[in-house]
Amino acid sequence: MQIQTNVPSLFVQRQLEKSSEGLNTSLRRLSSGLRINSAKDDAAGLAISERMDSLIRGNTQARRNVNDGVSLLQTAEGAMQTVTDSIQRIRELAVQAANATNSLGDKQALQQEANQLLQNIDQIAGQTEFNGEKIFSQNRNSLSGTAAERAVLDGLKLGWLEESVERIQTYYGITGDNAATLEIVLTPPVGSGLTSSPGGVLAAVGSLTGTADGQGRTLNPFLYVDMADFTPPNLPDGGSAPIYNDRIIAHEMVHAVMGRSMNFNSVGALPSWFKEGAAEFIHGADERLSTDYNGGAGLATILTAFGNDDVSASAGYSAGYAAVRYMHQKIKEAGGDGIKDIMVYLNQNAGSDLSQALTNASSGAFADLAGFKADFNADAGAFIGGMNLTNSDTGAIGGYDTDQGSVLSAKDILLDRGDTIAETQVDGFALDYQSVGGVDRKSFALQVGAKSNETITASIAAMNVSALGIDSVDLVNLPQFALYDLDKALDFVSKHRAEIGGAQSRLESTAAQLETSIESQSAARSRIRDADYATETASLTRQNILRQAGTAMLSQANSMPNLVLQLLR
């Protein structure tokens, strides 16, 4: 027996210390509800649960972000609904204004209401906010270009192209072959050699590839409109002297149709004076001829340009116009149908040239091209001198001066009111318009996840009247044009409302996914970190018993050395 070292007491103390620590752990877990209260409880589990906690907290905030984003889009969609209602009302007014029963005063009253609605659209676009931030872009770039570009494109689509090809078909008997797409461009095509400058080339037809097929027909044709000369375009009549935009288009469409219907590009097949003269004759060129004939050029210069086939200056165009009109008159006097007979022959006889056409289709008026040129050179002075170049008729084919028809003034040649909208095609051609303009968008990046780059970007287009292309709606003079522009604006707003709706659905789906993720992550974190009360309660009971027993046993162990005293008695 020893009294210096009480080994049983030391053992009991150690066990009592363990049971006390276990009891303290159970108390901490039961009082906090957590199995892991410090890193020593479960280092790996703590690291895992902290990462889960980060995801849960991040996703919870992301869910709030998503809900804010939905509210933002709902605000934008509500504003777009109001814009739609305003456009619908303006369109209703345009339909009313287009009716011939309305007086000028009636149309002006309708325009006043339309102006108020347009101001309302601008106010909505400029003042709609969410949390102090303007929702819509304030950029005023138009969905269809500048006001001038829109006016030109509207003119092309709503009458200039359709009426030009109809006039060409009626009086020349030819159309495009429906095998080519005519590209409508407002900027000079690359490689064309064209430039945009006031007073230069007003418009031009050419080939995007600069080539022709084996029959001399233009491949990949384009119609270029120089906005420097078409600005501002006066609608609906297409302009004013000396530039009538619609007549320029009619001129160029003659080239386009001839380019796809006959041997247009082979060298020598069709003289330049004939090509340009036919293009001038479709709309009349009395104004030009009067200036050149009675002005500085004179007959000698006109005949020189004709003889040299030189159309580099105005006199060349006047020469071509006078020659084609002379040809038309002489063939009709011989019993034919005028220039139409020549055009139909060139169209129906692939690869033929003008001389062959004159031999076979001039009703005996001319033996060949050489004979025609000789006759015109001899008769030009008397023929041009006998023209009435100062009356209101332009000299266009089918008009009063040429064919004893109705007087065709500069504004009457094309009515600028087609039966259809030449958006994708016109008789003889598919159409493809160069994209101009573009509406600016305001982007909102929404953080929809707990990690970097988990974002959804919602973009909202500008909704002001300039952006929608309806800032120049004219119900008094151009209700039909207004209807076209309003329909485009409605389509644009409806498209973007659909985009907003799709974005809302995506955000709502994201919110639901975040809810599921938060639930799953929380459950996983709970399994790692939360205390199991059944287990911890049992542990607490066991540790309590062990502690009480340990305390009693420690008392017994400490009293064991007293037995030595019994030996000393």
Overall description:
This protein has 17 helices and 11 strands. Helix 2 runs antiparallel to helix 3 (104-127) and helix 4 crosses helix 5 (245-261). The chain has helices at residues 7-32, 43-97, 104-127, 147-172, 245-261, 272-281, 286-294, 298-307, 314-333, 339-348, 354-361, 369-385, 400-403, 465-468, 479-529, 533-559, 563-568; strands spanning 129-130, 133-134, 181-185, 203-207, 221-225, 239-240, 243-244, 425-426, 429-433, 441-447, 455-461. The longest helix has 55 residues, at 43-97. The model has no long low-confidence stretch (mean pLDDT 88). It has a 5-stranded mixed β-sheet, covered by helices on one side. Strands 1-2 form a two-stranded antiparallel sheet. A two-stranded antiparallel sheet has the order 6-7. The protein is rod-shaped. 57% of the residues lie in helices and 8% in strands. With 569 residues, it is an alpha+beta fold. The protein folds into 4 domains: 7-50 and 528-568, no CATH class; 65-136 and 456-519, f41 fragment of flagellin, N-terminal domain (Up-down Bundle), CATH 1.20.1330; 144-266 and 418-437, no CATH class; 267-405, no CATH class. The relative contact order is 0.17.
